[in-house]
Amino acid sequence: TIFTYRDMEGESHTYRMHYNLTRVAHYDDDFDDDDRDDDEEEYSIDGVMVIEGVDYDIRGVREIENERNESESETKFYVTLGEGDYMLVEQSYESEGNETEQEYSYSVYRDGQCVERSSFEYESEDDETEVKMTANKDGNNQALYFTRETVRGREIIILRTGTGKDAQSYYVTPVTDADGNVTYEYELIQR
């Protein structure tokens, strides 16, 4: 599997994973108290991640649960970077009816201390979408929060950047020109 991402400075990075996914447990509970069909599986993850030509060991676990109209999965794995140094990657997905939630994060640990962490969260339900991205590296925090919803037939978009007292919020309005091209206007929300 090949993964590509952009860091906080906008630089593109690519890494490749070679791994085995081995089922270690399966639970099929068709006769529980609440009359739902539950199906749960647990997998172990074992392999290597190749970053700039160097192999790093990975190990972890993936859990998947399915019920009638709901499904969940969680994946967590550790990438050994060196003696006492590692990267923790966590991913979760949940879907129930018309609601979807996804979260992804990675954290880099040096000598047992978290020195870098990035996360991405996405939630969608009916006519509302929320996206939140945060990053912390060398004590510098960055955050971006986006929400879009429809209120009385009108689309409302709010964008928030920064953290704490440095945070700024904007109303974002899509504008369509005569040729059908869409651009966006930003209006600072005054405190």
Query: Whole-Å distance between the termini?
Result: 46 Å
Determine the structural class based on helices, strands and strand pairing.
mainly beta
Helices, by number, come to: 0
Sheet with most strands: strand arrangement: 1-2-3-4-5-6-7-8-9-10-11-12-13
Q: What's the count of strands?
A: 13
Query: Which regions are unreliable across 5 or more consecutive residues at pLDDT < 50?
Result: none
Helix content: under 10%
Largest sheet: 13 strands, antiparallel
Radius of gyration: 21 Å
Shape: globular
Task: Give the ordered list of helices and strands.
Answer: EEEEEEEEEEEEE
Strand content: over 45%
Task: Indicate the mean pLDDT.
Answer: 86
Structure, described:
This protein has strands at 2-6, 12-29, 38-51, 54-67, 70-82, 85-96, 99-110, 113-125, 128-137, 140-151, 154-161, 168-176, 182-188. With 191 residues, the chain is mainly β. The chain has a 13-stranded antiparallel β-sheet, with no helix packed on it. The termini are far apart.
Can you lay out the helices and strands and say which pair or pack?
Layout: E1 2-6, E2 12-29, E3 38-51, E4 54-67, E5 70-82, E6 85-96, E7 99-110, E8 113-125, E9 128-137, E10 140-151, E11 154-161, E12 168-176, E13 182-188
Antiparallel strand pairs: 1-2, 2-3, 3-4, 4-5, 5-6, 6-7, 7-8, 8-9, 9-10, 10-11, 11-12, 12-13
